[in-house]
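Chapter review. Work through the record for SDF2 factor before attempting the end-of-chapter questions.
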Amino acid sequence: TAAVCQRGTPVRCGQAIRLTHLGTGRNLHSHRFTSPLSGNQEVSAFGEAGEGDYLDDWTVVCSGTYWVRDDEVRFQHTSTNVFLSVTGEQYGRPIHGQKEVHGMATSSQNNYWKVMEGIFMQPSEAFQMEQYHAEL
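Structure tokens for SDF2 factor:
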């Protein structure tokens, strides 16, 4: 949240991050407004070129030390404590069938996320050294 994350830098469980949409430069954002379909907390896109505010910060909730590519993860909004979620509510317009993403107050199966596609970045050299360092 304070600086741009360099490619290959591992993300720690419990770390606050911002998720920026590459196409629009907007951040995943939430605030205490009601979402239109489910009545949960609204999640939207906010900011310009990755710049935003404290309402764009999400805590990575996972087991272990780092967010691992093949593991499920949760994102908890740092200001309102809701979990990033998706349920069955679907929009009719503007994109028919698009599901509503919203914030839920409680953790459930609806707020687990898993990386399904994208580009895998090799961990940084410093991280690799940390993983294999052993005291004598």
